[in-house]
Every structure is written in structure tokens, then in C-alpha cells.
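User: C-alpha cells for this one?
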Amino acid sequence: MEPRESAEDYLEAILRIKEKQSYVRSVDVAKLLKVSKPSVTYATKRLRESGLIKMDDNGMLLLTNSGEKIANDIWTRHKTLAKLFKKLGVKEKQALEDACKVEHDLSSETFTAIQKFVDSIDSV
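Assistant:
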């Protein structure tokens, strides 16, 4: 399944929250994405139907293997692009915002080239 940009944002948010505090509540996702709780409820329902997330007995959100792969890919893109923008002299806040906008639209070929470039300037 090829998730849409908003689905990718939700998956990425779930991963980021999980990395920070080990559990993910819908309210945490709403806060991070600055959306309403009903928006999260709607989105998580769609993600569950797509097999990308599930809920545990306590109502915590969990990524499935396929959901985690997508989330990791998007989060890697986000971090790599933000790093590139910061190295170009963009202030951190703007670099993070712009990375979020760009991460969804790059082809794999272009992102791979960017990733190689960022890795090469890191090793200098």
C-alpha cells in the first residue's frame, strides 16, 4: 500500500512519539501534529484498516511491521533533508519545516543521491 502524505505524517508521528516515551496515545499524536482528536481518530481508523497500525488493550497505538517500515523511511528522509538544509545555512526551525514539506515528494533516486551527498559531507 502506498500511503498518502497525511498517512505518512501520522505514521512518522507515531514513530517519533514511541522513540521518545515508548507508548503512543491518540492525544500525543494530536498534540505533535497540531490537529484535533477527532482528526486523529479518523486517521488512525484508516491506518488500522490498511494494516499499518493496531491498538493494544490499553488503547495505545502500535505500528505494524509495514507501518514501521514506512514510518522509518519517512523519518529518515526528514532527518536527512533537515541536515542538508541546515548545512546549507537554513536556520533549524525552517530546515525542519521545509524537510517536512519535501520528504513526501522526492523520488527514491533523488533522495538516495541527497543521502549520499549528506553522508559525504559528514565524513569531511
